[in-house]
Amino acid sequence: MTEPLIYEQNEGIVTLTINRPEERNALSDDLIFKAFVDAAERINADNSVRCVILTGKGKAFSAGGNVKHMRDKEGLFAGTPTELRQGYRHGIQKIPLAFYNLEVPTIAAVNGPAIGAGCDLACMCDIRIAGKSAKFGETFVALGIIPGDGGAWFLPRTIGRSRAAELTFTGDVIDAETALDYGLVSRVVEDEDLLGAANDLAKRISRNPPHALRLSKKLMREGEHTRLESLLEMSSAFQALSHYTEDHMEAIDAFFEKRPGDYKGK
Fold first, then answer.
1. Residue 4: pLDDT over 80
2. What is the mean pLDDT of the chain?
3. Most buried one in 63, 78, 87, 138, CB count within 10 A?
4. C-alpha dihedral (226, 230, 234, 235), degrees to nearest 10
5. Distance between CA atoms of 183 and 164, rounded to whole angstroms?
6. C-alpha to C-alpha distance for 89 and 41, rounded to whole angstroms
7. Is the pTM of this model over 0.70?
8. Confidence band (pLDDT; 50, 70, 90) for 65?
9. CA 63 → CA 1, 17, 113, distances in Å?
10. How would residue 244 be classed by pLDDT, with cut points 50, 70 and 90?
11. Quick check: 178 pLDDT over 90?
12. Distance between CA 244 and CA 69 in Å, rounded?
């Protein structure tokens, strides 16, 4: 059976590739949901991982839900309203919970259309880089449904409430340059340069002490919903831990000796 999500690691960088090009990398069944959860658990348990790149195989990043399955009321879209609700809760909604809570920085290398749940999946990443052929759409309303995978939480936090509302209420699809203007992506590159650009960025991230990367990401995540006083208290605790790591002392030595640090995650 073909793996729905390819997991590849090169030193500290893991590349996850959605491997359903014949379905435009749709997200509609338990196999892909479980693959994302398993990959997230594997990454969080592996201290050698320092950064993750997510991309799609073929000409699409992800077209979101399989519309044929919607029409035929199968897979994720089968059953009574109660069964559908449970299907979402125990199916596709596992992806945002698992992927958003990855402890290491994540980069979405958007290599084509990112539509519906595919757009939301890109927004679950910390950083997004788009190839010129990329397109983005929060298109649920055009199919008479709503963002069922957390898009109403992710998109406003990514591009602001006004633009998120515009995309959600119109179902419009925007190109890569518009996504750059909206702040949905950090940069736009030629399609053939996309993975190279994502790997270059991942290497620049990965050269830093891994504990500092994971704790910094945790603080940023907590900062999205906690009080300033609580975040400052957490920051002081994390900082105290950081000052007593071997990597911190190595970073200080490397600073004064004007050389790259050699970090062990200790």
1. yes
2. 94
3. 138
4. 90
5. 11
6. 19
7. yes
8. confident
9. 22, 14, 6
10. very high
11. yes
12. 53
SS3 209: coil
Checking if the pLDDT of 157 tops 70, the result is yes
Give pLDDT, residue 35.
96
Burial (Cβ within 10 Å: 0-12, 13-18, ≥19) of residue 259: exposed
Report which of 135, 137, 108, 140 is spatially closest to residue 121, judged by C-alpha positions. Answer: 108
CB 113 within 8 A of CB 61: yes
Residue appearing with tokens 């050389």: 259
Q: Which domains does the chain have, with CATH numbers?
A: 5-206 (3.90.226.10), 210-257 (1.10.12)
Q: What is the dihedral of CA 20, 83, 136, 105, to 10 degrees?
A: -80
pLDDT of residue 183: 97
Q: Is the pLDDT of residue 250 over 90?
A: no
Task: Give Cα separations from 66 to 20, 62, 226 (angstroms).
Answer: 11, 10, 36
Q: How many residues does the chain have?
A: 266
Supply the DSSP string of 116-171, one letter for each residue: THHHHHHHTSSEEEEETT-EEE--GGGGT---TTSHHHHHHHHH-HHHHHHHHHH-
Q: Are 73 and 132 in contact (CB under 8 A)?
A: no
